[in-house]
Specification:
- The protein has one domain: Purple Acid Phosphatase, chain A, domain 2.
- 39% of the residues lie in helices and 14% in strands.
- The protein contains eleven helices and ten strands.
- It has helices at 25-34, 57-63, 75-85, 90-98, 106-116, 144-159, 167-178, 181-190, 200-208, 210-215, 219-222; strands at 4-7, 15-18, 43-46, 69-71, 122-126, 131-135, 232-235, 244-246, 249-251, 265-267.
- A six-stranded mixed β-sheet has the order 1-5-6-7-9-8.
- It comes from Microbulbifer hydrolyticus.
- InterPro entries: Ap4A_hydrolase, Calcineurin-like_PHP, Metallo-depent_PP-like.
- This is Phosphodiesterase.
Length: 271
């Protein structure tokens, strides 16, 4: 499968995008049931990081068929691949919720790694009202064209089965799977959240004013979130307390498995 995938319009049902699930299959299923998700016509798109931390990583991986339930690659899947490829990379994955993977036998590890290596790194979905881009972490220079170029840069090595550490793959993975450029701008420049300059009480108070501050954002603050080459972009990877829209960006990583939290699941093709 291509590292960059274009998805045609869903003429039969609804398309949903969900933020980082991290192994919480029961929570996902509960919310899909509440939405009346129809497996015969609706489609679900995951923003990567379907594994680690929660109890159902294997079941989440098996759920992804890239036909009705899709996923792009996240940094946690990348850590899983790297840990399988090199003992030197095991500790990073293990320390970030990946211990379940190293309890599996080598054959099962290989099956799961082979599966996620077929996942695209980015998607462009025809919603019927425009094109929605999906990428896990960041959009370098607020340019979807750069997302496409980075996937093209890594495509040959990725298709050949090269390791995560291969230079072309590593160069593309850093901005697309790991970086936090846009979310840092959101926290610092729009919301005024700066851990280094605020007391804990000040930070928590500002965090509670999240929605109000977003509503007050001016055009200059919104400028980095206007993404060229695409109509809208959905991102995971970095925590937001609620699904957050600014400019062309939709940040959906809102679930940490704590009481009262929900996954951000949004319909992208409703009229």
């Amino acid at each position: 499968m291509s590292i960059y995938r274009k998805i045609q319009k869903n003429h039969a049902g609804r398309d949903f995008v969900v933020g980082d699930v991290h192994g919480h299959l029961k929570q996902l299923q509960k919310q899909l049931d509440a939405l009346g998700f129809d497996t015969t016509s609706d489609r679900l798109f995951c923003l990567g990081d379907v594994v680690d931390r929660g109890p159902d990583s294997i079941a989440m991986l098996d759920l992804i068929d890239q036909k009705s339930v899709f996923s792009i690659l996240g940094n946690h899947e990348a850590m899983m691949i790297a840990g399988f490829e090199s003992p030197a990379d095991v500790q990073l994955h293990f320390a970030n919720g990946g211990e379940w993977f190293y309890d599996l036998n080598r054959s099962e590890q290989s099956r799961l790694v082979d599966k996620v290596r077929q996942w695209p790194w980015a998607m462009a979905i025809d919603t019927g009202q425009g094109t929605a881009g999906l990428v896990h972490a960041d959009v370098p220079d607020s340019s979807w064209e750069k997302v496409e170029k980075l996937t093209q840069f890594a495509a040959k090595a990725w298709a050949a089965g090269a390791a995560m550490s291969e230079p072309h793959i590593a160069t593309a993975a850093q901005p697309l799977l790991w970086n936090r450029g846009l979310i840092r701008r959101l926290y610092r420049d729009v919301l005024g959240l700066d851990r280094g300059k605020m007391t804990d009480a000040e930070y928590e108070d500002a965090f509670r004013q999240w929605t109000a501050k977003l509503a007050d954002a001016d055009s200059e603050q919104c400028r980095p979130f206007r993404i060229s080459g695409i109509d809208s972009v959905y991102l995971g990877h970095s925590y937001v307390p609620v699904a957050t829209s600014i400019g062309d960006c939709r940040f959906l990583d809102s679930f940490r498995g704590e009481a009262g939290e929900e996954l951000s699941v949004v319909c992208i093709n409703s009229d």
